[in-house]
Design a protein that fits this description.
37% helix; alpha/beta; five-stranded parallel β-sheet; 487 residues; globular
Amino acid sequence: MADLFINGAWVAGSGAAFSSVNPVSGATAWSGRAADAAQVDTAVAAARAAFEDWAALSVADRVAVIRRFAEQLKSTQEALARTIGLETGKPLWESRTEVATMIAKVEISVKAHAERTGDARTPQLEGAATLTHRPLGVMAVFGPYNFPGHLPNGHIVPALIAGNTIVFKPSELAPATAAATVKCWDAAGVPKGVLNLVQGARDTGVALAAGDIDGLLFTGSSRTGEALHKQFAGKTDKMLALEMGGNNPLVIGAVSDIDATVHTIIQSAYISAGQRCTCARRLIVIESANTDALLTRLARVVANIRVGAFDADPQPFMGAVVSVKAAHDLLAAQEDLIARGGHPLLAMKRLVPNTALLSPGLIDVTEAKDLPDEEYFGPLLQVSRVRSLDAALVLANNTRYGLAAGLLSDDVNQWRNFARGIRAGIVNWNRQLTGASSAAPFGGIGASGNHRPSAYYAADYCAYPQASLEAEHVSMPAALSPGLDFS
């Protein structure tokens, strides 16, 4: 079976056998073998050999290949959406949106590359000062399972535009989506060695991170990101871009429209079954006369959220979490919150035995003690009541993470104070926390990243600036420096 794509050819993996399964039906989405260490080295060597020719192409020539990739995505849009849904449990309506985002990323990245890494020439008295940008070399891309098409695509496309070559290791939970995406690259005519795919779990990742690469672009958990950061310590010759998670706060201030507020909370906390790194994990409510009515309405509407299989008709709002194990871990986290003093306003439950279908959970932790600063990656929202915006800010900032935060409030002064006091890379006002613009940077601080924001700023970590002073001839200065004698 052709499991890997190395140097322009599909080859069988020589490592451990593994498979991905649908988290509801248990149907196999992909089965094959991982790349062993030797195959990882072969993929890196292929990328190294292809680098010089790929980097020597004009940006226009590289973009032409990448635009053909976008056309291939369009031609297989529905099939790829179904693969994403089958493998992750994500509803088809959302998988289709993911593929559309992958297509749109191409032109956004072309524009970002031109704006953020373009060339410049400034005439000077003697010659000129020039600025160009150069590719880094061979880049490893580690992809996550929650957006197995879109998020690695957000690294790969800008890196290829800049002239880098790629070795891509997707999540072991989403190998089918990666294979389908790389088939689009192959059909688009990407030159051999420019893009390589190595499937596998931890061992494959360890081998790739330790290989002869010039950079690693990662999206995933803070735990893995921190391990990579330690591994790369002292390796100043390698670029490391980490996009990690968050224990994200959504603060509710002076709001008058309860249903609009409830809708925005749901879109912030429960979209993608809570499996977005920007999902609200903590709902911090500044107490007011309508707090009880708001929370009662929230619990009622959340309880009515339709949860189901990715291809159910009518479509659910929430699909499954990615695996039965992930569902088990989330239920255990809920029990831990309750044991610490949390009160379930709406208990999360497994809807069908032996599946990863979970109902959304809502836990009041106002009186709970010693709450862990953890990112519970699923439909589990913690509620805390506070008496003031100042108290809300203290609680919101009481986290080692710093990815996303938001305020729902009709009071512009609350917003100004919140925006000034909050510590996060993405800060929204009266918009869902999971909303982010592709024309803006995307990333956080603290345990959420290492100051390498992606999205529109991905161009920044895919190339390095090269500044030059230039003159057509070597010439003597008009006046010699003190202490020189050419007589």
